[in-house]
Design brief:
Layout: H1 5-21, E1 27-32, E2 37-42, H2 49-64, H3 68-74, E3 97-101, E4 107-114, H4 118-138, H5 151-160, E5 162-166, E6 170-177, E7 183-186, E8 189-204, E9 207-209, E10 212-215, E11 218-221, E12 223-225, E13 228-233, E14 237-240, E15 246-263
Antiparallel strand pairs: 1-2, 1-4, 3-4, 5-6, 6-15, 7-11, 8-13, 8-14, 8-15, 9-12, 10-11
């Protein structure tokens, strides 16, 4: 997400409307994530001196990812940022500059307002930010991007046995084995296994022996009590539900297989 001209203009329009409600004249500036000026207005009869102040409030807020009023508290004598207002060709350390963040909490810009008391400047700036966040909420979700892996990438992944793709909802692994593994239990991931090459004995179900949590939602063990043993070979597909022990107990030659891990909801 980034600040477009349309976003900036809507933020300024909302801030201007609030200024008119308060019967005050303001200079209002919006900058993007690089602190570059995106849009600006000077309302009729707003102080000329407020032009530079509004822009510097926006850039200051963007530089530090915080409201200029908050920065001012940190730059008082004895505070960690004392004297910082003298850097970067002059920063503004009183209220009126407010950062703009997207739905993921990433800084995408800032708005600066000048023309009245610092508190009123900040209140009007916050109205502009709210208009921006409301615009994000109304925007249609971006379509997921298509993921493409060339044959060369896939071959290299199988050589090492490594993930092709991992996200919060599913994972795609290019897995390789030359030797037996250990007993595995995934407490949230269902494994969909497709055998590409090789032959192995796969044990599923039963009760894990000497199970230990090696990381969140992952348990490993040394053996299985009970369970079903089957020979798997090229072209076979196995679906192992989450919380089910599974174990490549014997591997006869190199074994290559895809694993799609689908995560259960909390």
């Amino acid at each position: 997400m980034h600040v477009t001209l349309e976003h900036a203009e809507k933020a300024i329009a909302a801030a201007r409307k609030k200024a008119l409600e308060l019967n005050t004249q303001m200079c209002i500036a919006v900058v993007d994530s690089g602190a570059n000026l995106k849009a600006f207005i000077r309302m009729d009869d707003a102080w000329v001196g407020s032009i530079d102040i509004a822009i510097k409030k926006a850039t200051t807020s963007c530089f530090f990812g915080m409201a200029t009023g908050q920065l001012g508290q940190l730059s008082q004598p004895g505070k960690p940022l004392y004297g910082i207002e003298h850097s970067n060709d002059g920063l503004i350390t009183f209220p009126g500059g407010v950062p703009i963040v997207d739905e993921d909490g990433v800084l995408v810009g800032a708005i600066g307002v000048s023309g009245n008391t610092p508190q009123e400047d900040e209140d009007i700036a916050k109205v502009g930010v709210l208009a921006f966040t409301a615009e994000i909420a109304m925007a249609p979700a971006a379509a997921p991007k298509v993921k493409y892996f060339s044959a060369g990438q896939v071959s290299k992944a199988f050589e090492k046995g490594m993930p092709l793709l991992e996200n919060a909802n599913y994972k795609v692994h290019a897995s390789h084995r030359d030797d037996p593994g250990v007993v595995e239990v995934h407490t949230r991931d269902t494994d969909i296994i497709y055998i590409l090459d090789g032959r192995a004995t796969l044990v599923t179900g039963g009760t894990i022996v000497a199970g230990k949590i090696i990381e969140p939602e992952e348990i490993r063990g040394s053996d299985v009590n009970g369970g079903e043993s089957r020979t798997v070979t090229k072209g076979d597909v196995i679906v192992v539900p989450h919380n089910t022990p599974h174990w490549f107990k014997e591997v006869k030659g190199p074994l290559n297989y895809y694993v799609v891990k689908v995560r259960a909801a909390n």
